[in-house]
Amino acid sequence: MTDYKNSKLILDTANLKEGTMKWRCPSNIALIKYWGKHGIQLPRNPSISLTLDQAYTETEMTYAPKRKNDVEIDLDFFFEGEKNEKFEEKIVKFLTGISDIFPFLKQLHLTIKSHNSFPHSSGIASSASSMGALSLCLCSLESDLFGTLKNDAEFRQKASYVSRLGSGSACRSIYAHAAVWGAFGEADGSSDLYAIPYANHVHEVFKSFHDDILIVSQGEKAVSSRAGHALMEENDYADPRYKQARRRMHHLLLAMESGDLERFGTITENEALTLHALMMTSNPSYILMKPNSLEMINRIRRFRKETQHPIYFSLDAGPNIHLLYPDSCRDAAKTFIQSELLDLCENRHWIPDQCGQGPLQL
Ligand code: DP6
After folding, report:
1. Does the beta carbon of 169 lie inside 6 Å of ligand 1?
2. Please, what is the Cα angle at 140 between 135 and 145, to 5 degrees?
3. Mind giving me the DSSP string for 211-245?
4. Of all atoms in ligand 1, which is nearest to the CA of residue 164?
5. Which of 215, 232, 327, 337 is the most exposed place for a label (fewest CB within 10 A)?
């Protein structure tokens, strides 16, 4: 089993020069949701997502030989231009946890500067893009220092594996357009350990698919995804849910291959509502949707019925609505958002986005 532990990755720091690497990594929207995990960040069911474009994190990592002679991770972390102790603590913990994969990290002084393209408080989950960007920097660092990971597929697989350890959904952000995470017979090469690229198996229509994020509430979530996953372990519906996710995965992959938007949309909306139903049936139960999330869902369904435009919704673990539609509906969607949805957004805030090319080294 791939575990990427490598005790040989140790530096001779005597002549080591300072260096910098920088990556931009987008967020992603899951269509079949990852909800429930076990072991070390292993998913209970396979998931598939579209990789976004405009909602991203940029992370710059600078390394230099360590001045102290200890075995701790030595890190200065800056978020949006300011030293951030809370995030620094989380990242030190993450880097310590993966120091058997990158043992040289303990030989370096690291400075990491990170910022998001979207406001931190916008209610958009940033763990996928931030863990993706950080893991790509780590793999570039290994590649620069040791001459390893020269092949793109090998590089991305390791970046996906490492980002999964930081946040499960992050492992799918490493690939352009679409990615599958979780072992699933119908997706060749799929694994619980990392995501695989899936763009070559989906219809062209999805490569320019839109995902506009309508900000219903910018507030911090009452229950984190981490806690939500944990509650699945005692949820009475957990086992049928994991079976259902596999069935839906089968149907969705077929719909995405053939470009059957109606089937795609029906499954995608059912998945979003199932995710929230699982929260409502957890113990303790909780609700992350807001009245305006429901009102938007009703308006989207009404608009679709009246106009026949294939415009659908999804939700992350939060109240914001993701409006999904093909590029051919761009104008109709814009008019619809402006006339019927913006009034329901907090401060009329929305982030137009679409399926994109995946991470970019800067
Ligand atoms: C609802 O990836 O945020 O967005 O692995 O604990 O970091 P951790 O959880 P996270 O969960 C994301 C859940 C989701 C669905 C999805 O992206 O598949």
Report:
1. yes
2. 130
3. EEEE-S--SPPSS-HHHHHHHHTT-TTHHHHHHHH
4. 5
5. 327
> Interhelix angle for 85-97 vs 152-166, to 10°?
120
Residues 6+ apart with CB under 8 A from 78: 84, 111, 112, 113, 114
**What number does the ligand 1 atom closest to the CA of 127 have?**
3
| Ligand 1 atom nearest 169 alpha carbon | 2
Taking the chain (362 residues) in consecutive chunks of 10 residues, what is each chunk's mean pLDDT?
A: 85 89 97 98 98 97 88 93 93 96 95 90 78 98 94 97 97 98 97 98 98 90 88 97 98 98 98 98 96 98 98 95 98 98 96 97 97
Q: Can you read off the two tokens belonging to residue 258? A: 């053939």
Give 341's DSSP letter: I
Domains in the chain: ranges and CATH: 13-202 (3.30.230.10), 204-351 (3.30.70.890)
pTM: 0.96
Structure tokens given for 143: 């590649």
How far apart CA 51 and CA 55 sit, in angstroms, is 10
| Pocket mutation for ligand 1, best pick of 225, 231, 278, 279 (most atoms within 8 Å of C-beta) | 225
